[in-house]
Amino acid sequence: MKMFYQALRRRPAMAGYDLALVWAVLILLAIGLIMVYSASIAAAEVDRDTGFRYSYFLTRHAAFLAVALLAGFAAFQIPIRLWQQYAPYLFLIGTALLILVLVPHVGREVNGSKRWLSLLVVNLQPSELMKFFVVLYAADYTVRKAAYMHSLLKGFFPMFLVMLLTGALLLAEPDFGALAVITAIAMGTLFLGGFDWRLFGGLIIMLVVGFVGLIYSSEYRYKRLIGFMNPWDDPYGKGYQLSHSLIAFGRGKWFGVGLGASVEKLSYLPEAHTDFLMAIIAEELGFAGVATVVVLFGWLTWRAFAIGMQAAKLERYYAALVAQGVGIWLGVQSIINIGVNMGVLPTKGLTLPLLSFGGSGIMANLIALGVLLRVDWENRQLMRGYTV
Amino acid sequence: MAYTTNANLVLRLQFWRAWLTLGALLVLFLALIGRAVYLQGYQKDFLREQGEARYYRVIKLEANRGTITDRNGNPLAISTPVQSIWASPSDMEPLHASQLALLSKALSVPLEELTRKLADTKRDFVYLKRQMNPDAAQRVLELRIPGIFKQTEYRRYYPAGEHMAHVIGYTDIDNKGQEGLELTRESMLAGKAGSRHVIRDRHGYIVEDVTGVEQPKDGQTLTLSIDQNIQYLAYRELKKAVEENGAKAGGIVVLDAKTGEVLALANMPSYNPNTRAKLDPARKRNRALTDVYEPGSTMKPFTAAAAIESGKFTPLTVINTAPGSMTIGPNTVHDAHPHGALTVEQVIQVSSNVGASKMALSLEREYLWEFFDSVGFGTPPHSGFPGETPGRLRPWKSWRPIEQATMSYGHGISVSLMQIARAYMIFATDGEIRPITFQKLVAPQPGRRVISAETAQALRKMLEMATQPGGTARKAQIVGYRVGGKTGTSHKLDGGSYVNKYVSSFVGMAPISDPRLIVAVMIDEPSAGKHFGGAVAAPVFSQVVAGSLRMLGVPPDAPTQNILLPEPDVPEIKEET
Q1: For each successive 10 residues of chain B (577 residues), what is the average pLDDT?
Q2: Domain for residue B532, yes or no?
Q3: Does one domain contain both B156 and B180?
């Protein structure tokens, strides 16, 4: 009898993976593909580097997507156990790549930042992969140091040193955006892993105080930072990019000027197909488009945390922290990117995950989502009584 | 493995931490939505305005300025499309030295000037070169430098050049009339510029039209009364006379005697309206309309006409002009050659000052003033030209007898060449005067009768006599046509007194049997020996009239052997004034 009810409760048959999450990702990727194309046509047409081909970014983005989807599918095949096992090595590889980027003649410099390694046809951006490796490593670290989560010295300090090294490498590029995301992942994972909340709170307060002190100690830094708050003071100089981004939002109104009809993408807004893709979405698709993307990212974050909590209930703590780390990553990065586009955060140089043009970013995002789905799949397997 | 290091035993993931983190992230997502509502729902108008300030432009579409043609449709002022190259420095990235050099060469603008023009990166419109020919402009655009554009404009071209400069005038580089008919008929010629409201991309290329294109309205064609051929002839003869006589200036007016249309008007010195850089303002003056001079003896026919109209004289009334001078108060009126008793006809023929003065003094001041006034002296001719002078005819109440006398032979009164030419219309048209016009008329404007037909015919006879042996203007005669006219040689006033500088003039008409043309010639300060109107101005008249009558196909009214030469031993009659 009891077995009968259990059998009833299992209906409808539970899928092997989180269908809603997969759909959210696919929708975001589709929006990204369309909008990267729309946002890049005008720029590609007049750019010598693209050979004046209007579809330059579309074809490359589509190719990246195909490869990244394959990579994500491959990541899905790998048991979490193995990810945990190799997390420290992956993290070391990531660090090595970050060092390699800084080596003269090896790292490629674009717009004053050394962020890329040239791999014949494509450029690899190690900092994007590093975000994924930090998710894996921070989870592994937290699980290993579970006993010291009350200790500043033994629990926090080793992680702090590792992050200091990584942070230094990222600052050398410089890539403030990646640093912010990686710091958020590491701190978030520690917090989720049970690090003493009083110490955590103290650290946060110290961080904030230190940061504010740093800013107020130098007029230059202060001006630089608050510059973003008032793009209209110098709309043709420092506030140029942001003011154009805001204009794009304003022009879009509730339902947008229509797909393809953006004016800002006509070489007014720099980085329209990468960091400021959201502004073009806002202009062409309006508030409706913005809200859709934000809700999808919110949903994505929610699912990542839900999968993580499910894993925790199953006492799979590493998997739980990895899932939630992915959630923090995608959540924080999308919030920062959209916030920058809307002028509430200073310009960081962060792409919009899953949407913006950029092979390394999408590759890292989809591998991470593959791992997240793997966590979910393993959860479901365990709940069905299988082993993983 | 020690108890404390077993993660599975120690680690109890607390769900409040996950909920708190997730909650914080979701709150931030909500905040973003709130920010989007603010930007896209409430701040949108401000943002749109900011956007429009950056890529919204109103582009002027130049209207094609109307063509000016002569009465036969020959173009006198035409607008040809040209390209102006302009740049938007605010949208441009700094150019390489090689690009600048290429640009400088293609524009033929010096490198320093180009650099200076492009230096102000705040500006989004600066002309690099105006009015290039379309091929040269195309070569500039083929350099494919972003932020450099062309604009179609029209350049005014005057095929007749200096021959017609004073009538047509010219426009400035923005196609606004500056002088002459280009200025006075601006509203008719200019048309109305259209506009496009467009959105442009960063490189300045037009993306779309925001509203419908407002098409420019081209200016209307202005058909002048001028006859290009007569104008060329008149200018050429005037120029020749001015140069041969070493004169300071000169003017000629050719009127259609029947309609009042101006067939030609030329002045010396002139200028080329196509290349008018560094132009002396004196050259620009349309002297025939703007400058006054004392008409001298060319006034006498009006004195005679007034005298006959008064009823006190007939053409054959005898006036004693001996001994060739006449005292009025402290002043004396002289004749160049003393004559004895002269009929009114002869007074005109030999140009006797004493005779004219006696006629004038026998008339009421008021009557004489009214007569002068009725032929247009003292009022502008209203030809529709800028800067017309009314001349100078003082009120009759202030006339003293000596002034009344001198005015009868054209001193103490000032007129423009156009005024005197028009006034002669009363003799040419059997007594009627018409307004003059520079526009081709479909039908003549109504005339106003000033003198009777009989008087006019009598005066025509006197004017013809003046061109025949015994008259002062024998050199005005032409083959095949009978002509009539009056010479004038007046001393110029300098600082209130008469000096030995002259204005030589001739006003005449042909064919005298039924006048078709009135030609007035004025030569200012001839200095090459001759200064009598009969010697300096009359030949210009005869050349112009002869050519013009043939061009107009006017049937001759005299046999070809009509020129009457004086007996070899008779001295040439010359007038002083």
Answers
A1: 44 79 92 90 82 78 86 89 83 78 84 83 81 85 82 84 87 83 86 81 72 82 91 93 90 92 90 77 85 89 91 89 84 84 89 90 90 90 84 88 88 91 92 90 86 90 87 84 89 79 89 91 87 84 91 85 65 59
A2: yes
A3: yes
Distance CA A76, CA A82 (A): 12
Backbone angles phi, psi at B9, to 5 degrees: -90, -35
The H or E element spanning position B83 is: strand B75-87
Two structure tokens written together for B412: 């103490």
Residues B175 and B319 in one domain: no
Q: Which residues pair with B493 in a beta bridge?
A: B498
Residue B241 and residue B249: Cα distance in Å, rounded? 10
pTM for this model (two decimals): 0.65
How far apart are alpha carbons B168 and B438 in whole angstroms?
A: 10
Token duo for residue A268? 């007014």
Same domain, yes or no, for B313 and B265? yes
Report the relative pairing of strands B75-87 and B148-157 from DSSP bridges. Answer: antiparallel
As a whole number of angstroms, the distance between CA B189 and CA B170 comes to 12
A-chain residues near B7 (CB < 8 A): 143-144, 146-147, 317
Q: Are A259 and A245 in contact (CB under 8 A)?
A: no
ipTM of this predicted structure:
0.90
- Of the residues B88, B297, B504, B542, which is catalytic? B297
CATH number of the domain encompassing residue B338:
3.40.710.10
A with B: how many residue pairs have Cβ under 8 Å apart?
155
Q: How far is A313 from chain B (nearest CA, A)?
A: 9
Contacts of B280 (CB under 8 A, 6+ apart): B271
Cα(B49)–Cα(B469) distance, integer angstroms = 86
